[in-house]
Amino acid sequence: MRYAVLITLTVFAVSLGCGGGGLSTAPQSGSLAYKDAGHEYLQYKASTSITYNVGGTVRQSLHDITYSVRVDSIAADGTIDRRLKFDDFVMGELSGSRLELDPDAEKYKGEALYLKIGPNGELVKWQGLEGVRGYTVSEKNLKDDIVQMMTEFFQPLGDEEVTVGSTFQRIVEIPVKRPGGEVNFKITIDYEVEGFGQRRERPCVKLKTRSLIEAEGEGERGGGKKYWVSLTGDGGGEFWFDYVNGVPVESSGKATITSDFSYERAGKEDVATQFATIDVESKTELLE
C-alpha cells in the first residue's frame, strides 16, 4: 500500500542557504526589499533531494526544476505580483543507483504561474499551471506543491536596513487544501545577518537561518475514508540576497521532519498509524 506523508517539496525554501567566501563583517548595511529589476526575467534552478523512511522502508525522490521569474509590479503596501514560467522540469525516484524519471514531468515545460503575495508573505491569489497533473512521491497534489514552494521561496524579508548581527523572525502560515479537508503549515524562521560580500559578482548580504516546521490537518483518501496528519521538524541554512538589485542569488538548506499519519481502513474503529522521518536537502541558484 502506498504511504501518504504530507509535506512540501521545499517547505524549507525559506531556510535558504549557500556557501561562499569573501565575506566581510565590517560595518555595512543593506535592504532586503525586493525590486522590480526592470520587469526582466531571471532564471533559477532548484534542486531537491527528499529521503523518506516509513517503518524501515526508504524511498528517495529527486527534483530539478528550472524556471524564469519576473516581478510585474510592487504596490505601495508591499504586495508583489510575479510571473513564472517553467523552462525545464525533471523529477523521479531512485531505484538502486538508477533514477526512474516521471514521464509526466516533461509535459510541464512551458507551464506558467502568476502569484500575488501580500506584504506579510500571505498568498493573496494565484493562477496558472493548467496542464500540471498528478502527485508527488508523498502523495501531495503537485500543483499545490509548486504554488507553496514558490510562495515560500519569494517571501518578503522587509525593507528595513540591516547590519551584521541584525536578527529578525518571520512566521509563514500556508493552508493547503486537500480532498475532504485542509492541512495547515506553520514555518517559523529566525534570521541573522552574518556579513556582506560578492556572490556571482553581485553585492549580497548573507543570512544564516534556523526554522521550525509544524503542520496539522486532515483529508480523505479513496473511498471517502479519513486520514489525519501531523508533523514537526527543524532545519537550517544560509541565504545570499542582492541588496542593490533586490533579488535572491543563491540558497541551500537541510531539514529533518517526523510525521504521524493515521488513516481509516474499514471504519472509524479501525485506524492505522504510520510514522515517518523525512530528510530534505535543497539548493536554489540564480543562473546567469
Q: What key attributes describe this structure?
A:
single chain, 288 residues, mainly beta, Lipovitellin-phosvitin complex, beta-sheet shell regions, twelve-stranded antiparallel β-sheet, two-stranded antiparallel sheet, 1 helix, disordered N terminus
Put the structure in a nutshell:
The protein is mainly beta. The protein has one helix at residues 142-153; strands spanning 29-31, 42-54, 57-74, 80-95, 98-101, 112-117, 123-128, 161-163, 167-178, 181-199, 202-220, 226-242, 247-264, 271-287.
Description:
The chain has one helix and 14 strands; from the N terminus they run E-E-E-E-E-E-E-H-E-E-E-E-E-E-E. By secondary structure, the protein is mainly beta. The chain has a single domain, classed as Roll (Lipovitellin-phosvitin complex, beta-sheet shell regions). Residues 1-21 have low confidence and may be disordered.
